[in-house]
Predict the 3D structure of the following.
Amino acid sequence: MKKVFLALSVIFLLSTVSVRAQEVFSVYMDKNSPDNHYIPSGWMGDHGDVKLNDESRNEPYSGSTCIEISYSSKRSGGFGWTGIYWQNPPNNWGSRQGGYDLTGMTKLTFWAKGKSGGEIIEKLKVGGIKGTYPDSTEVDFGPVELSDTWEKYTINLAEKDLSYISGGFVFVTSADLNPDGAVFYIDEIKFEKDESMKPEVKAAELMPFYVYTDRMSLKNHFTPSGWMGDYGDISIDQASADNPTSGESCVKIVYSGNMSNGARWAGVYWQSPPNNWGNVDGGYDLSKASKLSFWARGEKGGERIEEFKIGGLMGKYSDSDSAGIGPVILTDKWKQYVIDLKGKDLSYISGGFTWSTNVDVNPEGVVFYIDEIRYE
Protein backbone atom coordinates (compact mmCIF):
# COMPACT_ATOMS: atom_id res chain seq x y z
CA MET A 1 0.00 0.00 0.00
CA LYS A 2 2.87 2.41 0.80
CA LYS A 3 4.30 1.80 -2.68
CA VAL A 4 0.96 2.61 -4.24
CA PHE A 5 0.69 5.84 -2.21
CA LEU A 6 4.24 6.83 -3.25
CA ALA A 7 3.57 6.18 -6.91
CA LEU A 8 0.36 8.19 -6.82
CA SER A 9 2.12 11.03 -5.02
CA VAL A 10 4.82 11.24 -7.69
CA ILE A 11 2.24 11.31 -10.47
CA PHE A 12 0.07 14.01 -8.93
CA LEU A 13 2.94 16.23 -7.90
CA LEU A 14 3.56 16.93 -11.57
CA SER A 15 0.52 19.11 -12.15
CA THR A 16 -3.06 19.83 -11.23
CA VAL A 17 -5.26 17.70 -13.45
CA SER A 18 -8.20 19.43 -15.15
CA VAL A 19 -11.42 17.47 -15.61
CA ARG A 20 -13.47 20.28 -17.17
CA ALA A 21 -14.57 18.18 -20.13
CA GLN A 22 -16.09 15.44 -17.98
CA GLU A 23 -19.70 15.21 -16.84
CA VAL A 24 -18.92 12.96 -13.85
CA PHE A 25 -15.77 12.66 -11.75
CA SER A 26 -15.80 9.92 -9.13
CA VAL A 27 -14.30 9.75 -5.65
CA TYR A 28 -15.45 6.16 -5.07
CA MET A 29 -17.52 3.86 -7.26
CA ASP A 30 -16.31 0.35 -6.41
CA LYS A 31 -13.22 -1.28 -4.91
CA ASN A 32 -10.32 -1.00 -7.39
CA SER A 33 -12.44 0.90 -9.88
CA PRO A 34 -10.28 2.86 -12.35
CA ASP A 35 -12.77 5.72 -11.87
CA ASN A 36 -11.77 6.26 -8.20
CA HIS A 37 -9.68 9.40 -7.84
CA TYR A 38 -9.10 10.13 -4.14
CA ILE A 39 -7.63 8.02 -1.31
CA PRO A 40 -9.12 7.86 2.27
CA SER A 41 -5.73 8.67 3.81
CA GLY A 42 -6.48 11.70 6.02
CA TRP A 43 -7.46 10.17 9.34
CA MET A 44 -8.27 12.73 12.03
CA GLY A 45 -9.19 13.02 15.71
CA ASP A 46 -9.66 9.69 17.50
CA HIS A 47 -8.44 7.75 14.47
CA GLY A 48 -7.93 4.66 16.61
CA ASP A 49 -11.70 4.51 17.10
CA VAL A 50 -12.53 4.16 13.42
CA LYS A 51 -12.18 1.36 10.90
CA LEU A 52 -12.76 1.69 7.15
CA ASN A 53 -13.48 -1.18 4.81
CA ASP A 54 -13.73 0.00 1.20
CA GLU A 55 -14.61 -3.45 -0.12
CA SER A 56 -17.64 -4.24 2.02
CA ARG A 57 -20.13 -6.52 0.33
CA ASN A 58 -22.88 -5.73 2.82
CA GLU A 59 -25.65 -4.85 0.36
CA PRO A 60 -23.87 -2.07 -1.59
CA TYR A 61 -26.05 0.49 -3.30
CA SER A 62 -24.51 -0.39 -6.65
CA GLY A 63 -21.69 -2.52 -7.99
CA SER A 64 -20.12 -5.25 -5.89
CA THR A 65 -18.73 -3.22 -2.96
CA CYS A 66 -19.32 -0.15 -0.80
CA ILE A 67 -17.51 1.65 2.02
CA GLU A 68 -18.22 0.42 5.57
CA ILE A 69 -17.19 2.69 8.44
CA SER A 70 -17.19 1.49 12.06
CA TYR A 71 -16.77 4.04 14.85
CA SER A 72 -16.41 2.86 18.45
CA SER A 73 -16.66 6.32 20.16
CA LYS A 74 -14.13 5.20 22.82
CA ARG A 75 -12.33 8.58 22.71
CA SER A 76 -9.00 6.74 22.45
CA GLY A 77 -7.11 9.90 21.53
CA GLY A 78 -9.01 12.17 23.89
CA PHE A 79 -10.67 14.17 21.10
CA GLY A 80 -14.23 12.86 21.22
CA TRP A 81 -14.52 12.97 17.43
CA THR A 82 -13.09 11.42 14.30
CA GLY A 83 -13.11 11.88 10.54
CA ILE A 84 -11.45 10.78 7.32
CA TYR A 85 -10.41 12.87 4.32
CA TRP A 86 -10.28 11.42 0.81
CA GLN A 87 -7.11 13.13 -0.46
CA ASN A 88 -5.05 13.62 -3.59
CA PRO A 89 -2.19 12.92 -3.39
CA PRO A 90 -2.56 10.56 -0.42
CA ASN A 91 -1.67 11.96 3.03
CA ASN A 92 -1.58 15.47 1.63
CA TRP A 93 -2.53 18.20 4.12
CA GLY A 94 -1.59 21.02 1.77
CA SER A 95 2.16 20.54 1.89
CA ARG A 96 2.34 19.08 -1.63
CA GLN A 97 0.90 20.13 -4.95
CA GLY A 98 -1.70 17.85 -6.48
CA GLY A 99 -5.46 17.91 -6.53
CA TYR A 100 -7.81 18.37 -9.44
CA ASP A 101 -9.34 21.28 -11.31
CA LEU A 102 -13.03 20.45 -10.98
CA THR A 103 -14.28 23.66 -12.57
CA GLY A 104 -17.71 23.08 -14.09
CA MET A 105 -18.86 20.54 -11.54
CA THR A 106 -21.91 21.83 -9.66
CA LYS A 107 -22.57 19.15 -7.04
CA LEU A 108 -21.20 16.17 -5.19
CA THR A 109 -23.60 13.31 -4.62
CA PHE A 110 -23.29 10.17 -2.52
CA TRP A 111 -25.46 7.41 -1.12
CA ALA A 112 -25.41 6.50 2.58
CA LYS A 113 -27.21 4.38 5.16
CA GLY A 114 -26.75 3.29 8.77
CA LYS A 115 -26.53 -0.26 10.00
CA SER A 116 -29.48 0.22 12.35
CA GLY A 117 -30.73 3.72 11.54
CA GLY A 118 -30.28 6.75 13.76
CA GLU A 119 -26.52 7.03 13.22
CA ILE A 120 -25.47 10.67 12.94
CA ILE A 121 -22.74 12.08 10.72
CA GLU A 122 -21.94 15.52 12.08
CA LYS A 123 -20.46 16.96 8.92
CA LEU A 124 -19.56 16.08 5.35
CA LYS A 125 -17.44 18.36 3.26
CA VAL A 126 -15.72 19.11 -0.02
CA GLY A 127 -12.35 20.89 0.11
CA GLY A 128 -11.06 22.70 3.18
CA ILE A 129 -7.44 21.52 3.21
CA LYS A 130 -5.10 24.37 4.14
CA GLY A 131 -1.30 24.71 3.92
CA THR A 132 1.07 25.82 1.20
CA TYR A 133 -1.25 24.42 -1.48
CA PRO A 134 -4.73 25.05 -0.04
CA ASP A 135 -7.99 23.93 -1.55
CA SER A 136 -9.75 26.69 -3.47
CA THR A 137 -13.01 26.27 -1.52
CA GLU A 138 -14.60 24.62 1.51
CA VAL A 139 -18.25 23.54 1.43
CA ASP A 140 -19.92 21.96 4.47
CA PHE A 141 -23.01 19.76 4.59
CA GLY A 142 -24.83 18.26 7.57
CA PRO A 143 -25.52 17.07 10.15
CA VAL A 144 -27.18 13.98 8.71
CA GLU A 145 -29.19 11.36 10.60
CA LEU A 146 -29.08 8.14 8.62
CA SER A 147 -31.85 5.62 8.10
CA ASP A 148 -31.25 1.90 7.62
CA THR A 149 -31.94 2.16 3.88
CA TRP A 150 -29.88 3.79 1.15
CA GLU A 151 -30.60 7.49 0.64
CA LYS A 152 -29.03 9.95 -1.77
CA TYR A 153 -27.44 13.18 -0.51
CA THR A 154 -26.29 16.21 -2.49
CA ILE A 155 -23.72 18.88 -1.63
CA ASN A 156 -24.42 22.00 -3.71
CA LEU A 157 -21.25 23.30 -5.38
CA ALA A 158 -22.81 25.70 -7.87
CA GLU A 159 -20.56 28.71 -8.52
CA LYS A 160 -17.96 27.51 -6.01
CA ASP A 161 -14.28 27.85 -6.91
CA LEU A 162 -13.31 24.25 -7.64
CA SER A 163 -10.11 25.07 -9.52
CA TYR A 164 -7.96 23.22 -6.98
CA ILE A 165 -9.40 20.42 -4.82
CA SER A 166 -7.06 18.00 -3.06
CA GLY A 167 -9.56 17.19 -0.30
CA GLY A 168 -12.26 15.59 -2.38
CA PHE A 169 -14.54 14.37 0.40
CA VAL A 170 -14.55 14.11 4.18
CA PHE A 171 -16.85 12.97 6.94
CA VAL A 172 -16.69 13.94 10.61
CA THR A 173 -18.66 12.50 13.50
CA SER A 174 -18.43 12.51 17.28
CA ALA A 175 -18.93 10.49 20.44
CA ASP A 176 -21.48 13.01 21.69
CA LEU A 177 -23.70 12.34 18.68
CA ASN A 178 -23.03 8.57 18.69
CA PRO A 179 -22.36 7.65 22.34
CA ASP A 180 -22.70 3.93 21.59
CA GLY A 181 -20.67 4.10 18.41
CA ALA A 182 -21.93 3.81 14.85
CA VAL A 183 -21.63 1.66 11.76
CA PHE A 184 -22.59 3.24 8.46
CA TYR A 185 -22.10 2.76 4.74
CA ILE A 186 -21.29 5.11 1.85
CA ASP A 187 -21.37 4.40 -1.87
CA GLU A 188 -21.13 6.17 -5.26
CA ILE A 189 -19.36 9.35 -4.20
CA LYS A 190 -19.03 11.52 -7.28
CA PHE A 191 -18.81 15.08 -8.57
CA GLU A 192 -21.35 15.89 -11.27
CA LYS A 193 -21.93 18.61 -13.83
CA ASP A 194 -25.60 19.57 -13.50
CA GLU A 195 -26.52 22.89 -15.10
CA SER A 196 -29.84 22.98 -13.25
CA MET A 197 -28.08 23.47 -9.89
CA LYS A 198 -28.34 27.04 -8.61
CA PRO A 199 -26.16 28.62 -5.92
CA GLU A 200 -27.49 28.30 -2.40
CA VAL A 201 -28.66 31.56 -0.89
CA LYS A 202 -28.23 32.04 2.84
CA ALA A 203 -31.60 32.96 4.25
CA ALA A 204 -32.20 34.28 7.74
CA GLU A 205 -32.56 31.32 10.09
CA LEU A 206 -35.85 30.67 11.84
CA MET A 207 -36.02 31.13 15.60
CA PRO A 208 -35.33 29.61 18.02
CA PHE A 209 -31.91 28.66 16.69
CA TYR A 210 -29.81 26.49 18.99
CA VAL A 211 -26.14 26.53 19.79
CA TYR A 212 -26.73 23.61 22.17
CA THR A 213 -29.84 21.86 23.42
CA ASP A 214 -28.85 18.20 24.02
CA ARG A 215 -25.89 15.93 23.27
CA MET A 216 -27.37 14.13 20.26
CA SER A 217 -29.62 16.86 18.95
CA LEU A 218 -29.53 17.77 15.28
CA LYS A 219 -30.63 21.24 16.41
CA ASN A 220 -27.09 21.97 17.64
CA HIS A 221 -25.48 24.32 15.11
CA PHE A 222 -22.10 25.34 16.48
CA THR A 223 -19.11 23.30 17.74
CA PRO A 224 -16.97 24.14 20.83
CA SER A 225 -13.78 24.02 18.79
CA GLY A 226 -12.19 27.42 19.48
CA TRP A 227 -10.09 26.79 22.57
CA MET A 228 -8.19 29.86 23.73
CA GLY A 229 -5.57 30.96 26.27
CA ASP A 230 -4.60 28.18 28.66
CA TYR A 231 -6.50 25.64 26.61
CA GLY A 232 -4.64 22.82 28.34
CA ASP A 233 -6.50 23.76 31.52
CA ILE A 234 -9.92 23.08 29.97
CA SER A 235 -12.06 20.00 29.59
CA ILE A 236 -15.57 19.98 28.12
CA ASP A 237 -18.21 17.27 28.34
CA GLN A 238 -21.19 17.98 26.10
CA ALA A 239 -22.96 14.85 27.30
CA SER A 240 -22.95 15.48 31.05
CA ALA A 241 -25.95 13.93 32.81
CA ASP A 242 -25.22 15.91 35.99
CA ASN A 243 -28.64 17.48 36.63
CA PRO A 244 -29.29 19.18 33.26
CA THR A 245 -31.86 21.94 33.29
CA SER A 246 -33.76 20.13 30.52
CA GLY A 247 -33.36 17.11 28.28
CA GLU A 248 -30.86 14.33 28.91
CA SER A 249 -27.61 16.28 29.04
CA CYS A 250 -25.87 19.60 29.53
CA VAL A 251 -22.38 21.00 28.96
CA LYS A 252 -19.91 20.51 31.83
CA ILE A 253 -16.81 22.71 31.76
CA VAL A 254 -13.77 22.24 33.99
CA TYR A 255 -11.10 24.96 34.17
CA SER A 256 -8.13 24.02 36.37
CA GLY A 257 -6.37 27.38 36.46
CA ASN A 258 -2.99 25.62 36.19
CA MET A 259 -1.72 28.15 33.61
CA SER A 260 -0.49 25.29 31.42
CA ASN A 261 0.16 27.64 28.50
CA GLY A 262 1.18 30.68 30.54
CA ALA A 263 -1.76 32.85 29.51
CA ARG A 264 -3.50 33.07 32.93
CA TRP A 265 -6.91 32.88 31.22
CA ALA A 266 -8.95 30.47 29.10
CA GLY A 267 -12.09 30.30 27.03
CA VAL A 268 -13.89 28.40 24.30
CA TYR A 269 -15.73 29.55 21.18
CA TRP A 270 -18.62 27.59 19.67
CA GLN A 271 -17.82 28.00 15.95
CA SER A 272 -19.25 27.27 12.51
CA PRO A 273 -17.61 25.53 10.83
CA PRO A 274 -15.38 24.01 13.56
CA ASN A 275 -12.00 25.68 14.10
CA ASN A 276 -13.08 28.71 12.08
CA TRP A 277 -11.41 31.95 13.23
CA GLY A 278 -12.81 33.99 10.37
CA ASN A 279 -10.73 32.37 7.65
CA VAL A 280 -13.59 30.25 6.25
CA ASP A 281 -16.91 31.31 4.75
CA GLY A 282 -19.36 29.76 7.21
CA GLY A 283 -21.70 31.04 9.84
CA TYR A 284 -25.40 31.83 9.81
CA ASP A 285 -27.74 34.74 9.18
CA LEU A 286 -29.31 35.21 12.61
CA SER A 287 -30.86 38.58 11.90
CA LYS A 288 -34.27 37.42 13.17
CA ALA A 289 -32.90 37.06 16.71
CA SER A 290 -33.35 39.73 19.37
CA LYS A 291 -31.55 37.88 22.16
CA LEU A 292 -29.46 34.87 23.06
CA SER A 293 -30.49 33.03 26.21
CA PHE A 294 -28.77 30.25 28.12
CA TRP A 295 -28.87 28.57 31.51
CA ALA A 296 -25.79 28.25 33.71
CA ARG A 297 -24.77 27.18 37.21
CA GLY A 298 -21.60 26.59 39.16
CA GLU A 299 -20.67 23.37 40.92
CA LYS A 300 -20.36 25.17 44.27
CA GLY A 301 -21.54 28.71 43.58
CA GLY A 302 -19.35 31.81 43.48
CA GLU A 303 -17.59 30.86 40.22
CA ARG A 304 -16.81 34.00 38.20
CA ILE A 305 -17.04 34.00 34.41
CA GLU A 306 -15.57 37.18 32.99
CA GLU A 307 -17.63 37.21 29.84
CA PHE A 308 -20.26 35.35 27.87
CA LYS A 309 -20.38 36.62 24.29
CA ILE A 310 -21.62 36.04 20.75
CA GLY A 311 -19.80 37.03 17.57
CA GLY A 312 -16.51 38.88 17.49
CA LEU A 313 -14.51 36.57 15.22
CA MET A 314 -12.26 38.58 12.92
CA GLY A 315 -10.59 37.70 9.64
CA LYS A 316 -11.42 37.46 5.95
CA TYR A 317 -14.93 36.35 6.92
CA SER A 318 -15.49 38.36 10.09
CA ASP A 319 -18.59 38.17 12.23
CA SER A 320 -20.94 41.04 11.47
CA ASP A 321 -21.20 42.15 15.14
CA SER A 322 -20.68 41.09 18.74
CA ALA A 323 -22.45 41.40 22.10
CA GLY A 324 -21.84 40.06 25.57
CA ILE A 325 -22.49 40.16 29.31
CA GLY A 326 -20.15 39.88 32.26
CA PRO A 327 -18.63 39.42 34.63
CA VAL A 328 -21.16 36.85 35.88
CA ILE A 329 -21.04 35.28 39.35
CA LEU A 330 -22.68 31.87 39.17
CA THR A 331 -24.80 30.27 41.88
CA ASP A 332 -25.11 26.54 42.47
CA LYS A 333 -28.63 26.64 41.05
CA TRP A 334 -29.61 26.90 37.41
CA LYS A 335 -30.25 30.49 36.32
CA GLN A 336 -31.19 31.84 32.92
CA TYR A 337 -29.06 34.60 31.41
CA VAL A 338 -29.81 36.80 28.40
CA ILE A 339 -27.55 38.65 25.96
CA ASP A 340 -29.55 41.50 24.41
CA LEU A 341 -29.11 41.53 20.62
CA LYS A 342 -31.55 44.27 19.67
CA GLY A 343 -29.94 46.67 17.22
CA LYS A 344 -27.08 44.28 16.42
CA ASP A 345 -26.12 43.22 12.90
CA LEU A 346 -26.50 39.45 13.05
CA SER A 347 -26.42 38.83 9.31
CA TYR A 348 -23.25 36.75 9.56
CA ILE A 349 -22.30 34.93 12.77
CA SER A 350 -19.64 32.20 12.85
CA GLY A 351 -18.80 32.60 16.54
CA GLY A 352 -22.12 31.49 17.97
CA PHE A 353 -21.19 31.62 21.66
CA THR A 354 -18.12 31.93 23.87
CA TRP A 355 -17.09 32.19 27.48
CA SER A 356 -13.84 33.26 29.15
CA THR A 357 -12.45 33.37 32.66
CA ASN A 358 -9.05 33.64 34.36
CA VAL A 359 -6.93 32.38 37.22
CA ASP A 360 -6.88 35.72 39.03
CA VAL A 361 -10.60 35.56 39.83
CA ASN A 362 -10.66 31.74 40.08
CA PRO A 363 -7.30 30.81 41.66
CA GLU A 364 -8.46 27.26 42.35
CA GLY A 365 -10.18 26.86 39.00
CA VAL A 366 -13.89 26.36 38.38
CA VAL A 367 -16.41 23.73 37.39
CA PHE A 368 -19.58 25.05 35.81
CA TYR A 369 -22.45 23.95 33.61
CA ILE A 370 -24.28 25.47 30.63
CA ASP A 371 -27.50 24.32 28.97
CA GLU A 372 -30.11 25.39 26.41
CA ILE A 373 -28.03 27.96 24.53
CA ARG A 374 -30.27 29.47 21.89
CA TYR A 375 -30.99 32.52 19.77
CA GLU A 376 -34.56 33.79 20.03
